[in-house]
Structure formats: structure tokens, C-alpha cells
Amino acid sequence: MLTDEQIRANLAAVRARIQAAAGGGTDSRHVDLLLATKTMPADRIAVAIDAGARVIGENRVQELAEKDAVLSTLPCERHFIGHLQTNKVNQVLRYVTCVQSVDRVELADRLQRRLETLDRTLDVLLQINVSGEPSKFGVPPDQALALARDVAKRDRLRVRGLMTIGRMSSDPDAVRPGYQRLRATRDKIESAAVDGVRMDTLSMGMSADLDIAIAEGATMVRVGSAVFGSRPRP
Ligand SMILES: *Cc1c(COP(=O)(O)O)cnc(C)c1O
């Protein structure tokens, strides 16, 4: 586990990388930073929030519940970035303002029904599998527009963009074509001008490859280990 000082220094370094990749200088493009906080205890996350982090992403509903007593008191927004089972929908909605991993109509349906009961709305991103790896969740790029149309029929869900998890590779350039594919998919959905669908968020890029993702158009990067250090292996 890293010290407070290490986390603050890492966060500053990640911000510098983001700014450099976004053009550098004062007129650089704005890119949001989401901290991926899986396995990290709430007190480590609190250090990053104290240092100015404003959005965190969790992968498991159980961790959202465990850390809620601390995180709900801090000025940060929580997103869900993991695979969401439909039987966890009621629980996840207690904690998050955005689900980045909507990858099927059945899930959209369950979210819609619960949101009607709660009388609220939710931002969602559609998860796209750009690498074609069977181990990854998300719809293939050629099904993204159809999913956007289906999800947009659920009026409590506000489609805000796309999310992808890039190819795992020791060669960072191997991820680039996938990120280009996500951007092209975003452009295609945008030009289809579907009612209720906005495409202002392109969530792609992690610790190892955020620079490439930003160069390819990411508006949000999701960073874990570059800030919090390596995680225990599952
Ligand atoms: C863990 C995780 C990240 C961050 O990964 P790092 O390599 O630690 O930066 C980003 N997105 C998702 C969906 C994750 O699960």
C-alpha cells in the first residue's frame, strides 16, 4: 500500500501525462480523470480525493457498499466500471451516478425499471469490445448503434458515450487500432443523431496506455495502478 505522499506524487505525474498527451500548455484539450479504485481501501482513495480527484470508478458492488461510509462523505462522484449483473442493479444505484458498462438491453431494462421506482435518471456509457477478445465484455462495434437506439428508448437512461477496455499487451501500440475503432464508432453513432443519445464521453485508456488513448480522442481516462500502485493479484 502506498503512502499519502506517494499517492499525491503519482496523481501529479498522471495529471502531467494527461496534459502532455492532450496538447500541453494552457490551450490543451480537457480530459477527465477517473480513478479506478478496485481493491484499494477507502482511506487510500480519500488521499487522492483530498488532492483533487473528483471521479472514481469501482468494479464490484460489494466494494461500493464497503467503502460507502467513507466515500459518501467526500466530494467525489462514483461510476460503475465493472461487469454488472442484473441482480445487482438495485444495490448499485444506491452509490453511482453513472454506469459505464451497459452492454445489453436486458441490463438497460432493469436499470430503467428501478430508476422509475426511484424517480431519477442515470448517465450511462455503452461498453464496446473493440479488440474482439472473447474474455472481454461489451458489444462489437458493429452492434453499437443498435444498442444505442435500444437503450435510448428507456427514458430514465441518458446515453452519454462509449467505454472500452483496450487490448492487454506489452506493446502499447497494439491498443491503438482498438481506440481508433471506438472513436470511429462514436462518430458513426453521433452522425445517426438518435433522439436522447449524446456522445460527449469517450472513456478509454488506463495506466499503461492513457497517452495513446488521449491521442486517439479519449475524453476520459480510467487510471488505477499509476496512482495507487500495483494491486494484489486475484
Ligand atoms: C482496473 C481498471 C482500470 C485501471 O487499470 P490500471 O491499469 O490499474 O490503470 C480501468 N478500467 C477498468 C474497467 C478497470 O477495471
UniProtKB/TrEMBL annotation:
Domain of life: Bacteria
Record keyword Heme present: no
Keywords: Pyridoxal phosphate
Cofactor(s) named in the record: pyridoxal 5'-phosphate
Database matches in InterPro entries: Ala_racemase_N (IPR001608), PLP-binding_barrel (IPR029066), PyrdxlP_homeostasis (IPR011078)
Pfam families: Ala_racemase_N
Gene3D superfamilies xrefs: Alanine racemase
One function term, GO molecular function aspect: pyridoxal phosphate binding
Domain Alanine racemase N-terminal per the UniProt entry, residue ranges: 33-232
Positions carrying N6-(pyridoxal phosphate)lysine: K38
Record's function text: Pyridoxal 5'-phosphate (PLP)-binding protein, which is involved in PLP homeostasis.
Family according to the record: Belongs to the pyridoxal phosphate-binding protein YggS/PROSC family.
HAMAP family: PLP_homeostasis
NCBIfam families: YggS family pyridoxal phosphate-dependent enzyme
Protein name: Pyridoxal phosphate homeostasis protein
